[in-house]
């Protein structure tokens, strides 16, 4: 509703004001007349005090009789608070006992607070003593401490993929997505998604080269990194494969050039470390694997096209396998093997010499038809290495589904 403005009215003046007739002064010695102030907007005739806009006489906050309000004892408040906090219960008891007589003496408020503080402090003291005697307090503290440590540890184990270090095992809950921003480092004995085998910096580009270019570099170099980290390839589960983290176009702008190589489960987590290099193998095991692994590596690089489609590529590949076989034969002969491995290794060298002849025929085939004729015989001639591996303490059974006997 709209407010109405007050209307001022003025009484008409009929005659000019006339001075009132002053009464004669009283005789000397007689009582003097008492004067009262004229009525005003906040006074009534005969009233010596005016109630202002902030309350009755006595000033702000005054009580009904003009007395100041009672203050609350700070000791009583502190006693109540200390009684609630178990570790401060003894202090709360003392504060409450000191507060009571002071409240009576000074006329303060807070007697109920002091009594409540004393009661709560006493109960807390009893519970504290019982906890110490029965060990319950210690158990509770241990549980609290463990929870804090686990929380801190969980936060510390959450990392960027590019902060991972060689040998760390990790879980990547976003592994199926295009980009991963966070992984959790876990104990390798526990189930995990992958294990870091190493990494490298991408060089040779002044601008972002594109994901395909970096992917091609990563696949080639991470294969070498993985072979150096997990030399006992037969110990790698069947569904664990080459895996790597690449810089994105956004992180590249911020200076990120790191590729992190790993071995990761394709479908499900795995347990245990896959590391088998100079830090975990002895000299005999290391020399054996360095001699034989090149054969396995080259065999996996067989061209996708048949000899009928690309005879030159298949013939070149057969030559690479032949070189790896001859290299293994020579390397095994240059090493002195421990007693238990002497005979199995000697047998293996003999088999490699026979295998070399078959692969030489494949590598020197005149055409695709001749290549096909020598192909199956060459593969069948690949020797079994399980006996020599077992004698050296290596994994002597190839992973299920392995395509070669080496």
Strand numbers in spatial order across the main sheet: 1-3-2-4-6-5
Order of secondary-structure elements: HHHHEEEEHEHEHHHHH
Outline type: elongated
What is the SS-derived class? alpha+beta
Low-confidence stretches: 1-21, 34-66, 148-157
* Mean pLDDT over all positions: 79
Q: N- to C-terminal separation? A: 99 Å
**Radius of gyration, whole Å:** 48 Å
Counting H and I runs of at least 4 residues, what is the number of helices?
11
Largest sheet: 6 strands, antiparallel
Q: Provide the helix percentage.
A: 40-55%
Q: What is the percentage of strand-forming residues?
A: 5-15%
- DSSP strand count: 6
Protein name: DUF4190 domain-containing protein
Organism: Streptomyces cinereoruber
Keywords: Membrane, Transmembrane, Transmembrane helix
Pfam families: DUF4190, Septum_form
